[in-house]
User: What shape does this take?
Amino acid sequence: MSSLPHGRIVVVGGGMVAHRFAEHLCQRSPEGDWTLTVIGDEPHAPYDRVHLSEFFAGRTPDDLVLDAGPWSDPRVTLVTGDAVADLDLAGQTVTTRSGRVEAYDDLVLATGSWAWTPRTDGTDLPGVFTYRTMADVVALDEWVRLRSEKLGRPLAGAVVGGGVLGLEAAAALQTLGTSATVVEFSDRLMSVQLDPGGGEALRVLVTDLGFDVRTSTGATRLGAAGDGAVATMELSDGSSVPADVVVFSTGVRPRDRVAREAGLAVGERGGVVVGPTCRTSDPSVWAIGECASYEGECTGLVAPGNKMAEVVVDQLLGGTATYETFPEGTRLKGVGVEAASFGDVFALTPGALEVTFADPVAKTYKKLVVSDDAKVLLGGVFVGDVALYPSLRPMLGRPLGADPSAFLAPEGGAGVPSLELPDDVVVCSCANVTAGTVRGAVTEHGCTSVGEVKACTKAGTVCGSCVPLLTKIVNTTLEKSGIEVSRAMCEHFSMARAELYDLVRREGLRTFSEIVGAHGTGRGCSVCKPVVASILSSLGPGHVLEPEQAALQDTNDHVMANMQKDGTYSVVPRVPGGEITPEKLLVIGEVAQEFGLYTRITGAQRIGMFGARIDQLPAIWTRLVDAGFESGQAYGKALRNVKSCVGQAWCRFGVKDSVGMGVQIEMRYRGLRAPHKFKMGVSGCARECAEARAKDVGIIATEKGWNVYVGGNGGFTPRHADLLAEDLDDERLIQVIDRFLALYVRSADRLQRTAPWVADYPGGIAELRRVVVDDILGIGAELEAFMAHHVESYRDEWAETLADPEKLSRFVSFVNAPDQHDPDLSYTSERGQVRPARAGEVADPNPVIARTLEVRR
Assistant: This one.
């Protein structure tokens, strides 16, 4: 493979396609003698514009920034916040607004497009926005919050344009607590992507979300309030709507001004004219992405732009790659409803047949367009149920291999036919990854999971819509390679945890014997026994140390304490909200001193005592329970703690009583067994001192109520929580958390934290919000009843254990020698406390250690 000698490459534009160009160049020519300068006009490094709307779900601009790997290459320079103002083709230089001059041997135009706004009176009023860039969404968010505070009421919002971005903008307004009127000049929403049937189905769904949809009309004038800000919108049908904030999403135009003024050929409909190699009318200039006009068309999607970027890199490195248009599809995401289409949506191909299935009860609409012999797929429309979209879109222009109506048959029919995608079919259009490449990642590169395949091929790393299909191909390939892809929990249960949980719940099974007899085989193992124990505990059949329950528990739950590296245990009593009285502090000090325990303030705002022998645990807990403490369950797959700041009571910035709320929810969810441990946090203001967004459930106070975030965690793979609901009062907050945790307990997989569970939830956070907050499945009352039962049936495990001689008999160092202790335990002192002696160290003879050892004997 050749590398470009002494080449100075300049990319004008700092978006996703420019990032792909830089990334691909670095990968293809890791040792090439070239330099690359990428010049962007936005102040940010290239970011993920596809998921821009997730800013309103709590993602920050930094969260959306694309992989910084290319910028770490010493040959690459990234310039931000400095747009190119002039292009000199003869001198082969570009000049930025700041006066920076860059010479080039090859210039790549990746200037993208700009949001077009129709000529409407009042578009220059404060409160009028477009919806295209990070600056747009940040300004929109700030305006809504400040304006609503000034007016003292929720705002009335309007969106001009009923396409994909327009609907995303309307959803963003709703997320900000603003009403949303969608004005569309065409007779239906998403008129470019959906046929009349699909458009009507989408109207029904978005109306159910609370959108006010006005079609076949347009905005003619925006009226101002007394202070000059926008207040009303007049429509061409003679009506008007209140509009304290207006978002225009009426299409985009290619950003070709610099190219046009420099004298490059520009298409009739705009865009820099390019051929199959993406070279412009100047042999040293290339154009890629939305600013490029190929065969008279400018693409508006990232996938073709990425392909163009790869073509230019190949050309620069001496290759022969060319660009060809390939099937484009559109999918609506992040709105709360789903819609998607691809190919010949309107059946304009001569002889084309349309196969349609509409379900007005389920509010779904599906259509396939096929050739006149009903064999070749020409297009598809899906509204309300887009499960088929990822699998069928890559088959565009290819034989389906089955009756097209079989794909649209409702559940209960013969089932959807299986599709074996040819190797050359593009599975991930964003990264231009074929089915063959995915299979090769498994068979040739040894990838054994979807995550490994994504890292190897980049498939599924941009918009994510191909992940279901990617998963199917990976699993199928693994199976064909002789690698079993099992969904079974273990050899004793052929189903996953969620399925087993549902069976146990519905059938009222209450012992392991009943469960394994009905749905499993054998006597169980270290994998399934703790899972069954967790399921039974969450359904509340009794104490974890009841005879059949006790045998199922893992090491920690079996003795209700966390085992440490030397075989001793930790003692961590519950301290709700981190709030503790001096009297209780004295008790902890006395217990630690009496039993020679190492003490430490934990990150969970509790006091942990370490180094207790198993036989000492009952005596320690007797002292603690008598003082009013209860188990903190630091050992269980359950609620660990609720961290809180001091809140309104003490902090001058606090707007709500975070400690009080923290105590309330900790006392409510204490002891709740779940697929994995979970943590919660409550912050009294947006300054976030309790790190709530790093928790499985995070609560942040605002002037209007509580915002609740879900699915966050630190650990090996940190993840910020997603916004689930906002501006909730106390009662509604508890209701939403009840539903979320109950659903998690019911449906998560074995040892699955809330972070991956939320990330993998079908339909994402938007669908989870619909289920938990909006209760679209009608299971809210059932989930709340589950949690109410838990609250009513909660008993402190250690208090009950101390009252039961049979349970206490378990707490001995050696079953056959109950009065003897482990002779290998040895300790040394460090910073005035004890710790286990390391290999080669001798037990410290100082008085503290001597007394500790005496206590242990």
Q: What stands out?
A: The two ends are 73 Å apart (CA to CA). The longest strand covers residues 353-359. Residues 411-415 have pLDDT under 50 and may be disordered. DSSP finds 27 helices and 39 strands in the chain.
